[in-house]
């Protein structure tokens, strides 16, 4: 297997809305995450026709409101990351902490100062920040007042926000991403686009219009970033689920190709290549509309062409299999995508099919397609950790999962892929985005909180903490 490059970015990843807490503190406005109830039915609730984004604490719990209180514990948490030897830390800025309503004329200085402190704390330990500009936490007002990302006005609001934080932090932060898992909206547009059934999620044309608006907004952020610092790296971020045809039946092979185009490739093609792909019309026709039905200007297309991203960040948790010829097959659960159950794979506690080889395939596919560096910015195992009397978790299952995926990255490096780094998801336990639970844990660090918010909130190192420290210290030689 190929050795990891000396400058490989080992680290971990989190999102503001899942760990910060302080949801209404120091001038922060409400975000869509603040209005999503916790629990495994959170998306079903959000997609009820009468869902109006109101917060009803008599009916639901809102674990994002408190998260793990990183807002007040960031110094201790980052110190633990440093103890593991992190070279980088991927986190997001909460848009509504900077612009509480999204359409404000002036930013919230208290919010900007918080991220000043977080960035400085990282740099104190020589940890490079990797910042996601928008990670499933757009200001709620942009949904309730403007209808979410299907409204072109959000392009300007995002540009204003991006300009403020890029100007503020670019001198200290080299690595950025525009939108988290932008393609996830194909199946669940609520988090990325602020769209639910009550405001247009049931019409695919709205989702593609929202994507277009996000593509343009992201391209404007790229332009701003490059004007501030020529060596700044700003990427897109995709949810990538390596997709297989279930068998050699040509119908299933074609169906897998179409699924790859619609889900894995479409958003990347526009943001990396700067143009809409040749199959655009085919994809849109499948949903009963045409590209000409979208509100797209010549200026938009010129902006996309002139400002492609520098690298491809992506999450990888599982692969998926496609079968359109046998409707009797068992379906699989997954990270927003499922498909049919793959008989060659085992699954996690939440039914996500574990496929390290799929990560090697994904890295090769993305590298071959775009000829740009790739960055594994999310990967991990959500599991039910059971601590002993001393709060210690012997999470060998997590170590085995991560080891296999790191070996897959080694394989991709041997294949010639330019891999920038690896930041496993939820490096410290946090609230799950898909289920709103604390019990679905990913971290190297156990946080003593349960799904009802009970617990001390204290941090404890799991067995995987020491293992990952060894991996980083040896630059991937000791797995």
Automatic annotation (TrEMBL):
<protein>
    <submittedName>
        <fullName>6-phospho-beta-glucosidase</fullName>
    </submittedName>
</protein>
<dbReference type="GO" id="GO:0016052">
    <property type="term" value="P:carbohydrate catabolic process"/>
</dbReference>
<dbReference type="Pfam" id="PF00232">
    <property type="entry name" value="Glyco_hydro_1"/>
</dbReference>
<feature type="active site" description="Nucleophile">
    <location>
        <position position="378"/>
    </location>
</feature>
<dbReference type="InterPro" id="IPR018120">
    <property type="entry name" value="Glyco_hydro_1_AS"/>
</dbReference>
<dbReference type="InterPro" id="IPR017853">
    <property type="entry name" value="GH"/>
</dbReference>
<comment type="similarity">
    <text>Belongs to the glycosyl hydrolase 1 family.</text>
</comment>
<dbReference type="InterPro" id="IPR001360">
    <property type="entry name" value="Glyco_hydro_1"/>
</dbReference>
<dbReference type="GO" id="GO:0008422">
    <property type="term" value="F:beta-glucosidase activity"/>
</dbReference>
<dbReference type="InterPro" id="IPR033132">
    <property type="entry name" value="GH_1_N_CS"/>
</dbReference>
<keyword id="KW-0378">Hydrolase</keyword>
<dbReference type="GO" id="GO:0005829">
    <property type="term" value="C:cytosol"/>
</dbReference>
<keyword id="KW-0326">Glycosidase</keyword>
